Batch of 4 targets.
Target 1
Amino acid sequence: MTSLSPEAVEALFTRSDRSYLFARWGRPIVPVVFGVTDATVSILKGAIEALCVLTDHRLAETDAELGANLMVFFVADWGELTDTPNLDRLIPELDALVVRLRAADANQYRIFRFDDDGAIKACFSFVRMDDQLADVPAETLALNQMVQALLLWSDTAFTDHSPLALADGRAILRPEIADVMRVAYDPVLPAMAQDPSHALRLYARLGRAQ
């Protein structure tokens, strides 16, 4: 049996306003990374490739609508975002967002865009490398960012527990979270769901996956 209860599965996609909202990618993922070395880019792309193997989802070289649809930005200060050419065209509320992120002293933030069916069609992930994140190994940071970009998790899903664990000193995806990600991409299930009964369908597949 899975180590997650039906309630725990539901909580992963139940937002702080108590609404249930699940979404997965509905198109191949085309990642691009800004603000880090080529070595770190390779680590990040390796993490998303591993998660696409896990979920049986696809990567692609280009997205017909957006070119790249998973954009990861690393900055030292949130103000760098407003200096990024054309980013305000992708995120019209960019100036206000920078003000909010500075006020909250945040070190990461994600914005998702959705297609007409509610599936994820784009994700913009922003990471400010403060003292806390600077001490995190690149492999750990990359895996954590990609896990949170692959599904629309609840905004409180990983407040108390990271999706990662340590094994022999290396960060790995917690097995129960890996199982949820795998069944979340079952083609029989919808790409977007707002009814909590969807969590029961996930849970039923978790049991069969053991």
Note: The chain has a mean pLDDT of 93.
Target 2
Amino acid sequence: MAVKTRPITIDEYNLILDKMCSTFTYKTTNKDGEVEDKLFRANFKVAYALQLQANLGLRVGDVLKLTLNDFIPDGRGSFKLSVTEQKTGKVKDVVVNDNLYNNIKLYTLENNIKADEPIVKMSVRNVQMQLKIVCDELGINSVSTHSFRKFYAMRLFEDSGYNFEVVRALLNHSNVAITQKYLGVTNEEIEKASKNHNYMRNLKLINK
């Protein structure tokens, strides 16, 4: 039975990115079934792709097609991301953080990436393979590239005061029930929260 991909924590997010940007030796099994040492070379491009996922909430396939031209002025001094999702065909059209946009623009300038070229040019398979090596080395389980989109969703959920509707809109989900399932929040947890919510007081009339 396949293990369900889960959102990563903030600590795991930082550990994975730091490890991805480092060079280390890891154990692997060759085609003859023998265990051997292999060198993992620091891969900043994969780390950057995962950061884009975690900060924009896109699926990895959409991240790897993302260009600077996909960020357009919102008419109020900021920029918004406007892309069509490969999986759903839906348009994601949301304002992005100013510092995030500036970081992406600077990255393209420093790496001589044209505005109509993919910001991170590599295959989905390559990102997945590199991530698996790093997670295995760190002992982090049940994580895939999609964990970074779920990281985005969970951070939004917490930062919005646990507002399902905000997360639903930003993930382009059809309804809140899908978002609830996506976040892994069960009906029992919602029921427990409701049962524990009690701020009633025994009021007394104060005579003046």
Note: The chain has one domain: 10-190.
Target 3
Amino acid sequence: MSTLKRFFKDTIIYGFATVLPRLMNFILVPLHTAALSTGDYAINTTFYVWAAFFNVVLTYGMETAFFRFFSQSKEKSKVFSTAFITLSLTTVLFFLLVFLFRDYLFGLLDLEPYYFNILLGILALDTLVVVPFAWLRASNKPIKFAGVKIINIAIVVGLNLYFLWWVRKFPGSTPQIILDNYSDADKVGYIFLANLAASAVTFLILLPYFFRTKIDFSFPLLKKMWKYGWPIMVAGLAFVINENLDKLLLKDMLSDEIMGAYAGCYKLAVFMTIFVQAFKLGAEPFFFNQAKAENAKKTYSLILTYFVIVGSFIFLFLVTFVDFFKELIIRNNDYWIAISIVPIVLLANLFLGIYHNLSVWYKLTDKTRIGMYISIFGAMVTILFNILLIPVLGFIAAAWATLAAYASMAIISYFYGRKYYPIPYNLKKIGGYLMLSVLFSVFSFYVFRGNYFVGITLLLIFIGAVYFFERKQLALIIKS
């Protein structure tokens, strides 16, 4: 099997592990927007914003560091053991500190104590399985990885449907003990409990992997992993700012209702998010494993080209049918006031995927600190755009801030990459496909919105252009 074929195969499996759970999770968007007011949806969003933030802090770049050293080391059990023991100890220390300052944190995070305690449980369980999940990916076991992920999300979706729909619609078939303790006023709490239950089951499934190697802790190795990983942690925090600060600022600067509507419409970009995440899951270990191959740089270049082609098609397709997806997924029209953010957020996420691809240079050259600086720059763009423009433009400024941040990060990363690890990217093709999809999307959304005849015609023209220019290369990949 050729290198590219193996990459596409692993990415498809990882994509399945990401796409299927996200599609199952997608069921929850109409369920949540129907069951929750925009104000309650703001509480739900706030909870998961802080979950994302603390997840980065608790893992502090150890996952990527694990890939880096696992792929190179002959003592792979030592890498696994060192990473796992370190994460376990720091997680325990973190929760001891949180316990001491919990009264202060309730107000700081703007979460009720009950929700805060659930958040801590989810964070603890999810952090402890980071290394076992990373081991599955690094050891080329995408099917097992996918299976565990699917079980996790199936529990989340199943419990959400049960508590937010079944119990309310069919109380006669619900056990009395549940009815006696059920609170229709606290529907958000059931969403969080479903996540806690899924995290607990995932932890139990992966528990055998905790004991698959002997205890072989190496402090010198830990120092190397920390030096490599901490800039990635800072970059991760910057990413959380880019993804989530807008929502918190909209809540504070405008209202809970506006923030809830914005967060709900933001979910319509989920298909692009799925594509980007699937690519990242497949690409990260692949890039490390192929670093010493003779044609590695040419392979990386081709991967970015086809990433942009697929991403540009997804972008154009979703913009063309945005009103169809809006009515299908967000059935509460209180949320629709923010629908104009969707094309901007979709394009922002496409640029994020381009940045993930371009970031190969600093990960392979151990210059993660430069990657950290780029991410910090993106976070600064996000902060400035939001603070300065939300009072002037309203919620649409938050979407433009996200696009400006990710586009600037991709551009800066490209120019730094040319200096430290030059890759012969085909900028004419990449730029051409990207600009064509943006141009067609502008026509589809702002000029011919709702005219699916025009939209589908533009999609077919885009597909035809891809076929015309890529048919020879695709034939080579298929035959190899």
Note: The chain is about 85% helix and 0% strand.
Target 4
Amino acid sequence: MSAWRIDALRLRAELLLRRIGAPACVAVLLLVSGLLAWGWAWQQRALAAQLEARALPPAPVAAMVVRAPAATASDNLALFYGVLGQPRYAEQQVRLLFDLAAKNGLVLAQGEYKSSYDKASRVSTYQVTLPLKGSYQSVWHFALQALRAVPFASLDELSFRREQVADARLEARLRLTFYLSDAVPAAASAP
């Protein structure tokens, strides 16, 4: 095509778009994209049907079920105590939290610590409340890293406070509870 022909087509298309208006253009664009998506989905369904027709007959469901040995109550209890931390390492876990906060660029003031013991379950809890200052993203990264580093901890509270809307740094309060037990798991006590 010659250059004047392309320019004439472009001018006609521009005049047509101005005549019908922007909302109509958007509606036509949405209609065309919807039709294309419907066609693609229909084609994928037809392709899946062809592949299914060529596939081997399904195996009986009973053959696919793998039965795990039944766990006893004492096995479950041993697993429970096996994932708990030990009270003698609680301070090391707190030190780890301070290191993680520093790596995330957070200012961590003195925290509050509270321990308790439940006689019925023989489980100790060590509650750590940390006041943090930093960016929103850094606080969330710290919270997630803390939960990965201390698998026997739960995140009980995470609250944010900002003095002004424009402040990049905010104050956060994070409360974790460590679940601890002196009970030695059965697998660890076996020779």
Note: The CA atoms of residues 125 and 179 lie 5 Å apart.
